From TrEMBL:
Lineage: superkingdom: Bacteria
TM annotation in the entry: 15-34
Taxonomic lineage: Bacteria, Pseudomonadati, Spirochaetota, Spirochaetia, Spirochaetales
Source species: Treponema primitia (strain ATCC BAA-887 / DSM 12427 / ZAS-2)
Keywords: Membrane, Transferase, Transmembrane, Transmembrane helix
Record's GO cellular component terms: membrane
InterPro entries named among the record's database cross-references: Glycerophosphate_synth (IPR007554), TagF_C (IPR043148)
Designated name of the protein: CDP-Glycerol:Poly(Glycerophosphate) glycerophosphotransferase family
Amino acid sequence: MIHLHFNPLYIDPGTGSMLFSILIGAAATLYFLLRAVIIKVKVFFSGGRAAVSNTLYPYVIYSEGKQYWNVFKPVVEEFETRQQELLYLTSSEDDPVFENTYHFIKSEFIGEGNKAYARLNIISANFVLMTTPSLNVYQLKRSKSVNHYSHVLHMPSDATTYRLFGLDYFDSVLLTGDYQAKDIRILEKQRSLPEKQLITVGCTYLDVYAEKIKQLPIEDTHPFTVLVSPSWGASGLLKHYGERLLDPLAESGWRIIVRPHPQSKKSEADMLETLAKRYSTNPNVQWDYERENIYSLSRADIMISDFSGIIFDFMFLCDKPVIYVSQDMDLRPYDADDVPDELWQFRILREIGIELKEEQFKTMAEVIKNASKSTLLQNARLDAKNTAWQYRGEAGKRIADFMTKTVK
């Protein structure tokens, strides 16, 4: 007979992590249920006047902020060219859409966070396009008066790198490349969801950047330039390695441009301030906080990054090499954790980039020089570009075509 011994005072790390996740999930669910009850009570005592919007809009775009303008700009301009009316709702008071004089585009600032969601949750529209994930998961709900919700991917990397259930409740997802469809279909089968429309349209913001880069002045002569452009969070390059990575670069004599992830400025301000002070007397080290990344991309000869999507911007737009520092990314909070296969972006990175290990930091100059000369990497970059960025230059037109076809 086998005797099992159980220690009631011991919880293994895996079980503890699972219990913690369950408690957090339960607390979040209770919070949003209570919020929903409060809203319904308010609607009841207002006579139901807030139930739906009175105006039915044929086409609506919602932008979380001005950083997404280049994602939507080609679509907006296509509607303007076609003389079709479109409502553009934004959570940025200084959204670039307000700088343009459009005749068929109505733009409106609707506030941020819950204020914006309150408007969106009762809107009436035939078609709503957004980059915001997690529809019908948290505060952002499907309005009963919207016929079709569509999510447009704003990165050429895997579609499953959103938080759990990020794309589950959309009617369609607009892809940058055909390869992104496979993992979405896997999740639909796992979760017994109806199949969404998956339409490959290309990548709008890369189309915009490709045109902008052509207009940028070319530096006739410039020092060899290394762009350090990581993601943010505990697994991000700057947070994890910091001065251990930057010290050897600062001592190289090359021009070093450090472009932190936009979220780092909000979530890791103390860390950035400490690093900025450390290199404040080194004229070779520059910091870039511009809204658009193309200025740094165009000046760099090589990039050092981690798992940030800017890797693909750099390679696809500038056709220059990338060195990546591998750092384990905890996929448990993301849809990717439910997909059995390795993410495309992780697999392809080994083919198109060169891994830099921490023990190589002090001699990284040699690694960087070798990466700059590799024709093998150049061919791999082109293959990846053809896979992940299809229909180059056509995304705005293809999205507008799909929107109008769906409504008709």
